What we know:
By secondary structure, chain A is α/β, with parallel strands linked by helices. In chain A, 18% of the residues lie in helices and 34% in strands. Chain B starts with a helix and ends in a 6-residue tail after the last strand. The interface between A and B is large, with 49 and 60 residues. Chain B: Residues 248-408 form the Helicase C-terminal domain.
Amino acid sequence: METEILGERLELWPQKAVSWPEREILLLADLHVGKINHFRRSGIPLPVKANDRNVEVLLELVEATKPKRIICLGDLFHSHYNPEWEVFGEVVKHFRHISFELVLGNHDIMSDIQYSRKGIQLHDELRIGPFIFTHHPLEEIEEGAYNLAGHIHPGVNLRGKGRQSVTLPCFYFGAQSGLLPAFGMFTGMARIYPRKNDKVFIILENKIMEVSTTS
Amino acid sequence: MAPDVIKIGKDWFSARGWKAFPFQLEAWQAFLDGRHGLVNAPTGSGKTYSLLMPALLEFIRDNPDYKTKKNNGLQIIWITPIRALSKEIELSGNRVIEGLGLPWKVGVRSGDTSLKERARQKEKPPELLITTPESLHLLMAQKEYPDFFKSLRAVVADEWHELMGSKRGVQVELALSRLKTISPHLKVWGISATIGNMDQALEALLGNYYHEKDYAVVRSDIEKKVEVVSVLPDTLDTLPWAGHLGIQLLQKVIDIVKGSSTTLIFTNTRSFAEIWYHRMLDAAPELSGLIAMHHGSISQELRNWVEEQLHEGKLKAVVCTSSLDLGVDFRPVETVIQVGGPKGVARFLQRAGRSGHQPGAVSRIYFVPTHSLELMEAAAIREAITQKIVEDRLPYIRSFDVLIQYLTTLSVSDGFYPDQIFAEIKTTFCYNSVSEDEWNWLLNFITTGGDSLQAYDEYRKVGIHEGLYKIENRTLAMRHRLSIGTIVGDSSLFVRFVSGKYLGTVEEYFISRLNPGDVFWFAGRNLELVRIKEMEAQVRKSSKKSGAVPSWQGGRMPLSSQMSEMIRLKLDEVVRGVEKDDELVFLRPLFALQQERSHLPSKSEFLIEYFKSTEGYHVLMYPFEGRFVHEGMGALVAYRIAQIQPITFSIAMNDYGFELLSDQPIPIDEAIETNVLGVENLLKDIQASINSTEMARRKFRDIAAISGLVFKGYPGKPIKDRYLQSSSQLFFNVFHDYEAHNLLLQQAYEEVMDFQLEEARLRRALERIAQQKIIITHPDKPTPFAFPIMVDRTREKLTSEKLEDRVKRMALQFDSLD
Lengths: 215, 818
């Protein structure tokens, strides 16, 4: 599925990522790597295997989109250091030719050393072309620019006859700002309320569907 | 020969002008003979003294110097389901202890007990300790807890019928399994109101003692006469076809209140209590200051105040919920009113018993219907009372969540050796069937988090040192102690004035829909939401008109199977034209309309209605089996129809029937032809329908909280570790995807099987239906039977379509500004 924003062509992937082919950039948000370990460390027994999916899907995406840069819109790693960081670091090291970059989010609280050890570049905010990449959505956006953000873990609600209703994760593109779905497992979802003329793409199991036709 | 201590007891009774009832004497003798057992007696019948007295007499018998023996260590534990009861027991206890000249101390241990008092109890244990199941477990989370319990002679589980039907009953079973080892001379006794499965209640309480030891069942022959009077409107039109509130009859209720000294008004949910209280004040402002409200989400302080005022006869009426069902007897109460269907015979009788205290007096209970068909329940309950029918209470079995909580408790205090504890839990009714494999899984779960330990894994909870399973980490220990009280998993917020005064709790779901400045009605006050901070909703009083009234989950009781049977009986009377109850006579025009639009089924007929509306296509079926069975049967029938063709259903139910609603035509004729109501492959289809609905997911909410997966803080102590917060839903998903053999996950499915889709009961219902003639009607308009189900908003979902196909027919929900 594709969409166009300020003349730039973006590809939307059901693995919950956006690629920007012209610039060879892969965008992800809210991986929350290591969250499982934090629970386990506090005596809450989540299966460790649930960690693996993040990495597996990321490998799949890299294979499919062959990016030069991978930019994470915040919350890459869940809070303080734990050994899962080393597992993720292995992946980063493996793709030496790809630049891994992180726009810092509220959960990215590890010391800078941990990121530089793995060769991950840090940004508070990143501008490329017309886009301003941030973790928290910006409240004010200058004319001619477009903000892409994470943090929210957006989902929308759809209703049909016979009292049917589903809430699904989505990509959301408003007039001047857009939201990426949370990439990570075990992250939850927050319902958003789009306005008319916004573009919304829901994520079905292995497919993306646009639901935003002005109704 | 031991002294005749029974005479001592009798003498004390006569000195007070009382005479012991035969059942009391029987219980005294059985207890003194060293037996275990159960006293079956209603509230207010002297049940407390039936067991408290012999426990004291035994001490007198065994200790000739009893009058001077101080600090004897813990002798008796009295377990009550609610804290409010402990005051009453404490009073009775002190009275008789003083009267018999024992230098004993009485202690209360509950969530309200101060730290100072706790420390004192540990230092010098009271001889009689009154406590709740949670607090008893907390005592076992203390270092060197066996010392505290070693002199114990008896445990009494009060209101055992109430405890047994919940996981708190399981907590009692577990505590007993430990205490039986620590104090070998322990006697186990319970007190229970009458339930259908008395024998099972005894077995659950005694565990292995049921098979190995001498026990006695002592029944009181005290019987209360109950009269049921329905409050009828002047015309049938006044009553709506659907609804839960019954506010149409407000004036008649106010008249009853004014004509009586003190009235208890029972509602089925906490929100209705709030609304009724509110409306009564609006309609009769002169009652202001004379009426009050009482329910489980109001702070203890407010509740205590209401109870005191009730005792002193200062209140004209109290609007309440099941929070006043149990225990304490309020003498001034003259009249009892039940708003809405009572749903169960036992509960109704208990409520009715709140009035008419003079011996031989008739307890009269007024029934206020909230919608017209509910009047059938009044007729049904009258029949059940005549036939002396009462419900069963099902004890929980194989509750792995409570077991994990218990093992963690033992790890927090002195640690445990698995072989010993496994042998102990096997003596309980709940865990009798736990296999060695399951036990090993549990041990693994608490030590390694379910996975085999990996090099870099930092899972820490229970450690093993020379075979002893123990938690050393103090933070973990603290968090566990705080979570023991969490036996219900709803996430609730504390409501507090900005100044700090605590008012009670509301569910997070409700508060999250409000904005600061919004006004809501709670604890009988208009409150403005100021801010939400941590786990607290801070409020101030407001004079603005209130909008919202909070709703609390879990307020809806299903109709018991016994009541369901009575309803079917009454309906058949109507069909045969032999109905005599006032309520049924009053409802005649409604039944006529049902007959005109569709059909009124006799007991040899099964009615199905099928029609189209603007909402979609509706199939309604009326088994009259109660809400829980309908939830299961609805899911089962939906699942089976969905095998005929890809289709999506939204399923609603009430106590009389269920509805399958779809946006596409429903192949109902084909469904009947292929026997969707048959019993073939029942178990397989039940399992498949559980998998395709949300039922297990909902059960998992409580399981996750009890087993310590989801930690929500505790009154006054919100969690600091916000990063550890997660919803039980996410846990469910992760386990489902990565650890399908997880016993907690399996427990969720088993609970659905045991309580919702109970195979035996479903099978019986389907077998009954198989004997009936199926009648399908196509009404033009919703019928009186259909309407209350159709408007119900709590719905289950079942689909055999691809998500993609479903979504294509749906529309995105926009911001309400658009």
